[in-house]
Amino acid sequence: FPEDLALLFKEFGNVNTVKEATGNLDNMKRTRECCGPDYVILSGDDGITFDMMTDPEITAAGVISVVSNVAPKAVVDMVRLLLEGNTDEAKKLKNALDPLFGLVTAVRGSGVPGQKPPGHQGVDDHTGHALRRLPAAFGKNV
């Protein structure tokens, strides 16, 4: 909760950053309002990083990104351009990355993008049956 973050920041100066992955821009605005301009907000949601960094009521400082595992240069360049104030060029990269952002979704209840909730790993989403896991194989014929 933003108010709790503000209390912690006030009492413990080293508690000065949050990875914001709620997807709730109003909550992020409230965090900025409660914690002030010296508090660091990082996006934990690739798909709304651009909005978080360009919204003057949030002013996120960057992203802890999943998509950067697939397209590191594009994500780094987008963030760098935003920090430099070059939103037009950053918007072009964001638009190019949007299809990837759409693929990185959290499974309800897990809290981790692309990860199933505890107890659902190894279960077919459609049938509910356990999945058979085969050993990894490497070589010419694979």
Descriptive account of the structure:
It is a single chain. The protein is mainly α and about 140 residues long. The protein is about 40% helix and about 5% strand. The protein is built from five helices and three strands; from the N terminus they run H-E-H-E-H-E-H-H. Strand 2 (about 40-45), helix 3 (about 50-55) and strand 3 (about 60-65) form a beta-alpha-beta unit. Helix 1 packs parallel to helix 2 (about 25-35) and helix 4 (about 70-85) packs antiparallel against helix 5 (about 85-105). The longest helix is centred in the last third of the chain and has 17 residues, at about 85-105. The chain starts with a helix and ends in a 39-residue tail after the last helix. The model is unreliable at about 115-125 and about 130-140 (pLDDT under 50).
